[in-house]
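Customer escalation, tier 2.

The customer says the design service returned an amino acid string that "doesn't look like it belongs to this structure." They asked us to rerun it and document both sides in this ticket. The original C-alpha cells are below, unchanged.
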C-alpha cells in the first residue's frame, strides 16, 4: 500500500509535470502562483485525476469591473482553478448524459442531482499559502528584521462590525475578512482574499450557485501547500485551520447537504520553480501579469488570460462569444443554460432571458446556505460583493435594467497595468 506521503508527493509531482507540459512560463524573472484540483478514489495504488490547473496572482480594480460578465474579476490561481473545476463538473454532466448515464466520478440520485461517487474525494494543491488570513504569519516571516519587529509590536484598532480589512492592513489581526490585493500601493478591489474564498467553499462547496442547480455540495478534503519551511509549518497550519474553518464555528441552520467542512492541511517540500521565493529568496521579484487556465477533457482545455480577458483578442472582438474566456461569468451562464437544457429540456425563452443574477438567485437552497454564512450577524457578514449592477447581463450579452456605470466605448481594452 502506498503511503499518503507518497501519494501526496506523486500528486504534486504530476501537477508540476502538467504545468511544464502546458509550456507557459513567467518572463523576465517574474513569479506566479500555481494551483490545481484533482479527484481521488481508494485503490491499492495512486489514483487521482487532475481536473483543473491555473496560475495567476492578479485581480481587477473596482473601477475596471466589466458590466457584461466577459472578464474575470479575480485571476488568483486558487480562484481560477476552482472555476476550472466547476466547468469540468458541468461538462462531465454532459459527458454523463452522452455516455448513457456513465461517469467514473459522478453519480445521480432519484431527484436528478449529481454528487461524487462513494469514496471519491477532491484535493487541492497551491504553491504557496493562500493570500489573506491563512498567510499572515508566513508573510511576516519573510519581512526584514526591522519590519517584522514593527508588525509584531504594532497595535491596530479593531475593525468596525461588518467591515473587511484592506489587504494586509491591520496585519496583527487574525480571523478577519480581507480584500485583495495585499499591497497598499495597488488600486482597491472588490475581490475577497483566497483564504476567505476557500473558507466559503468549505461551507457552500466549490460548485457555487449555478453549479448547485445540478450538484450537491462538493468539498475539498485535503489542501497541499508549498513553500512553507519546516520551522514555519506549525504556525502556518494553525493559521490555515483558523482561516479555512476555525472562524466558522458559529455557522448554523444550514440547509440539508451543506455543512462546515474541515480539509486536512498538508505541506509539501517539492518546490515550484516559479514561486515568489524560488525566483527571489528576498521576495522582491515582481508578479507575472498573465494567467494560465487548463480544464481536463475539454475541447478547448487551455487559455491564457491577461487582465481577465483572453490574451491576443482584438478589442473589437472582445464581446463575441468565441472570444469570451471560458471561465467568465457570461460563459458559465451559457454552460448553465446548456446543462439545464440537456438534463431537463425546459429552457423556455423566459429562463433563457434570465440575467446572471436572476439565475443565481433561482437556486434557493444555495442562497439559503449563503445567508447562514454571510447574513447579518453571521461570521462572514462583512463579505464584500460587487453588487447586482455587475450581474445584469444575459448569456447573449444583453444588459437588462439601468446601467450604474456607463462604458464610454464598449470595445475598450483594459490597460495592461500590473494589478496585484
Amino acid at each position: 500500500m502506498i503511503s499518503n506521503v507518497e501519494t501526496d508527493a506523486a500528486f504534486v509531482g504530476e501537477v508540476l509535470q502538467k504545468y511544464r507540459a502546458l509550456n507557459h512560463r513567467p518572463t523576465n524573472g517574474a513569479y506566479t502562483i500555481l494551483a490545481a484540483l484533482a479527484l481521488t478514489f481508494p485503490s491499492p495504488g495512486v489514483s487521482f485525476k487532475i481536473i483543473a490547473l491555473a496560475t495567476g496572482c492578479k485581480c481587477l480594480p473596482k473601477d475596471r469591473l466589466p458590466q457584461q460578465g466577459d472578464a474575470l474579476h479575480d485571476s488568483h490561481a486558487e480562484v481560477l482553478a476552482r472555476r476550472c473545476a466547476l466547468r469540468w463538473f458541468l461538462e462531465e454532466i454532459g459527458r454523463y448524459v452522452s455516455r448513457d448515464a456513465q461517469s467514473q466520478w459522478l453519480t445521480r440520485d432519484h431527484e436528478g442531482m449529481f454528487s461524487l461517487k462513494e469514496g471519491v474525494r477532491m484535493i487541492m494543491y497551491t504553491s504557496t499559502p493562500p493570500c489573506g488570513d491563512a498567510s499572515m504569519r508566513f508573510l511576516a516571516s519573510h519581512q526584514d528584521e526591522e519590519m517584522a519587529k514593527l508588525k509584531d509590536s504594532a497595535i491596530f484598532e479593531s475593525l468596525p462590525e461588518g467591515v473587511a480589512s484592506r489587504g494586509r492592513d491591520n496585519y496583527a489581526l487574525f480571523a478577519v475578512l480581507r480584500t485583495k490585493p495585499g499591497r497598499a500601493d495597488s488600486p482597491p478591489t472588490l475581490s475577497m482574499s483566497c483564504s476567505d474564498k476557500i473558507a466559503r467553499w468549505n461551507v457552500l462547496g466549490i460548485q457555487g450557485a449555478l453549479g448547485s442547480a445540478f450538484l450537491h455540495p462538493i468539498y475539498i478534503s485535503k489542501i497541499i501547500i508549498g513553500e512553507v519551511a519546516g520551522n514555519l509549518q506549525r504556525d502556518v497550519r494553525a493559521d490555515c485551520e483558523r482561516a479555512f474553518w476555525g472562524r466558522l464555528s458559529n455557522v448554523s441552520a444550514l440547509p440539508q447537504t451543506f455543512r462546515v467542512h474541515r480539509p486536512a492541511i498538508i505541506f509539501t517540500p517539492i518546490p515550484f520553480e516559479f514561486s515568489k521565493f524560488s525566483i527571489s529568496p528576498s521576495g522582491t521579484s515582481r508578479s507575472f501579469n498573465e494567467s494560465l487556465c487548463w480544464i481536463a477533457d475539454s475541447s478547448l482545455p487551455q487559455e491564457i488570460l491577461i487582465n481577465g480577458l483572453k490574451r491576443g483578442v482584438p478589442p473589437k472582438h472582445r464581446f463575441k462569444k468565441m472570444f469570451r474566456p471560458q471561465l467568465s461569468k457570461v460563459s458559465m451562464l451559457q454552460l448553465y443554460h446548456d446543462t439545464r437544457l440537456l438534463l431537463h429540456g425546459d429552457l423556455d425563452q423566459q429562463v433563457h432571458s434570465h440575467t446572471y443574477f436572476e439565475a443565481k438567485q433561482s437556486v434557493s437552497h444555495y442562497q439559503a446556505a449563503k445567508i447562514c454564512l454571510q447574513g447579518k450577524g453571521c461570521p462572514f457578514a462583512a463579505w464584500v460583493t460587487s453588487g447586482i449592477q455587475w450581474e445584469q447581463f444575459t448569456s447573449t450579452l444583453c444588459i437588462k435594467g439601468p446601467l450604474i456605470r456607463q462604458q464610454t466605448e464598449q470595445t475598450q481594452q483594459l490597460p495592461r497595468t500590473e494589478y496585484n
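Tier 2 assessment: The sequence is consistent with the input. The first strand starts at residue 34 and ends at 40. The two ends are 44 Å apart (CA to CA). Sent an explanation to the customer and offered a walkthrough call.
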